[in-house]
UniProtKB/TrEMBL annotation:
Belongs to the TRAFAC class YlqF/YawG GTPase family. MTG1 subfamily. It is found in: Cytoplasm. This is Ribosome biogenesis GTPase A. It comes from the Bacteria. GO terms for biological process: translation. Keywords: Cytoplasm, GTP-binding, Nucleotide-binding. Required for a late step of 50S ribosomal subunit assembly. Has GTPase activity. One of its GO terms (molecular function) is GTPase activity.
Amino acid sequence: MKINWYPGHMKKTKELLKKNLKLIDIVFELLDARIPISSKNPEIDKIIGNKPRIVILNKADLSNKDINTKWIEYFNSKNIPIVLTNAANNKGIDKIIKKSNEIMKDRIEALRKKGIKNKPIRSMIVGIPNVGKSTLINALAGKKRAKTGNKPGVTKGKQWIKLRGNLELLDTPGILWPKFDDERVGLNLAFTGAIKDEIIDTETLALRLIERLIEISPEKLENRYNVEISDKTGLQVLDDIAVKRGCIVSGGEVDYTRVAHLILDEFRKGIIGKITLEEPNQIEGTF
């Protein structure tokens, strides 16, 4: 599957990030807890440089708890502050505020000595589309301030938003890189909905997801769909799921479009189970 998606506003966002970074005290790098490697934009480190940052693994409620622990240990070993969140349910939000104030403690004290009190900590949140940025912003603000949507790229433009805990936020749209040299990265992004379904073959995508789940979590497929996995190909399992769920058209043929949407939707909502597609031991090179 070839995936190439780089809307024009993403290029503008990259330029916006560079332009406004001098206004920022701390960067929130938002990743998807299910795919921390694939959801990291490799250009972000170059853009933010040595700015203080907090890595936020969002949608942690959808990911494997044991692997979440491995990711916490990994980032701690790199001395990178990390917080796990489920922004939709406001979980982990207070930890972000607390950690931000801890990291900015020296700056706050230096300003206090100059007679400057309660100056907001200015932050920027960066992340790929559909990783939950708008939901996180609304949770940090304590009310609905940013537009949200279930399609990637719904947040556009520049907004300064007042947050809780003496924080201000420069919101930016999510950005992806122009192409995916690693097909596995592109697939992971597509599996989780970071790439619009309209530009990919959803039937093939669902099949590839089934093949991946057979590899890492076969028991979850068996439990959710009451199918036998052993010694079967991904297509055979997909066909079995279609039969179990009544995704059949006249003549007894499988309705692949219908079963594909069902499987992708249930994976993205965590209905199949709490599944993480990437672990720290899969990191290649720098991260």
